[in-house]
Amino acid sequence: MRILFRFYNFLFKYYNFFKILFRTLQPKNEFKSKVMQNSLKYGMIPFTLLCAGCLFLNYPAFVDAQTAPKWYCTLFCGLLLVLLWIFCPPKQKEYEKSTVAFCLIISVLCLLQALYGICQYIGWFAGFNGFRVTGSFDNPAGFAASLCAGFPFLFYFLNRGVKWQFWLSIITVSIVCLAVVASESRAGMLSLLLVSLLALFYKLRVKLKYQILLLLSVCALALAGLYVLKKDSADGRLLIWRCTYEMVKDKPQGFGEGGFKANYMNYQAKYFEKHPDSKYAMLADNVNRPFNEYLLVLVDYGIFGLLLLTVFAFSYWHSYHVNKQKTVIQHLAGWCLCGIAVFALFSYPLHYPLVWVMGIASCITIRYRKNPNQSISKFAYWFKLATLLPIVLALSWLLSRSMYAEMKWCRIAHKSLQGQTEQMLPEYGVLYPKLQNNEAFLYNYAAELNVVQQYEKSLEIARECERLWADYDLQMLMADNYQNMQQNQEAESHYIKASQMCPVKFMPLYRLFQLYENCGEDKKTQVMAGKILKKPVKVMSPTIKNIQQEIQKKINDL
Question: pLDDT at position 108, please?
Answer without folding.
Answer: 92
